[in-house]
User: What shape does this take?
Amino acid sequence: MTRRKRQADRQFDAVAEGRRLPEGRLDDPEDVDALRAAIELRGAVPAADLPSEAFVAGLRDRLAREAAPTVPVTVSRRSLLASAGAVAAGAVAAGAAGVALDRAVLAPGPARPARVAGQLDPADGEWTAVASDAELAGGATQRFDAGGVIGFVSATDAGVVAVSAACTHQGCILQQNLAAGRLDCPCHRTAFGVDGRLLFSQLATQPAPLTRLQTRRRDGNVEVLVGRTV
Amino acid sequence: MVQPQMTDDAHGPRPEGPAVPNGPTTRLRIVGQDTYASWDEVYVDNVVRVYRLLYAKVGNRADAEDLTTEVFLAAFGPLRLSASRGEVRAYLAATARTALAKYWQRRLGVEVTHLDADVAARELEDEPVPSAAPARARALLDGLPERHRRILELRFLESRSIRESAHEMGISVGNAKVLQHRALRMAARGEGDAP
Assistant: This one.
């Protein structure tokens, strides 16, 4: 086998085995095409393109530490507009060429049986105020951290609802997405309504709705039943 | 304070169009009015999408992670939060495209795969559309001679080692390597019917 061929095979094997591509030089255009085909084939493995939770969480911490500017930087509105313009221009070409390159694994498949929400009912519970009625006025959502439970409490059309902020997939703590009025999982592309029902998920097995907590209104506050703190 | 939208619509207040934009008119839709509340939200909302976009172009986790990191580190400098979601995504897409091009130049001296800014921006949009990847893989494999198709399925779709694949096919490891090399070239040429 020639040296050039071996060089190309190292690349192909790396793709097949999910390893970082080795440094090198690919001079033969046919090898370049073959490597591209290998990458495309690899892309068809279901869910192989989901980032690990450790990576997602690690980069998040890193960005919080070093990247996110505390003072808004004057951008470059021009560069933003330029990239948006390039996008608009490219769309025409892509439409004409019939490019369809979406890599999402998530196909809107057949309806799956709805999974049932659990309810957190501590054996030795304690009613704890987590929000005032005023804070929930107008259908707002409040995050709370009480009795070892992080959750969200909301005033919905169906009354006050409190849910655990732990995603039912792997327990990642959900983020409130104010603009969309939903709770987003930082780990996998999954979102829940503030009432805990699943809105969408990239996962093949759809996660169950969020765990609910018992709530009651008392003295102008909303209280949830959580485990007694010592 | 911004009031959450109590709505059945999973995507919030943005106007929604077809899942796959089909021209410049729909493209303009992504430059919406709403903005991100924090850098963290920018990250949370886009990290999986950016990663998948890049994974599809490099085919392995380690490089996809490095590139995703590079994209967010690079984009968070010049971006500002007052940019709309559409603008943020367009910027992330453009940054991803540049990062990928530089990656290939460094790694192999040739741009093996390429990210169209428009395709990238589309993929960063709200709702994923059904993946075309399995169909494209099928198209690459269809028509290849049986043994060529089989080696690629074993290696790239079933993640079997070269040794396992050789064993499965009843050939030597050396032959399996040669077969894999030829099969990839054939698939790339779209010459499924070639001898």
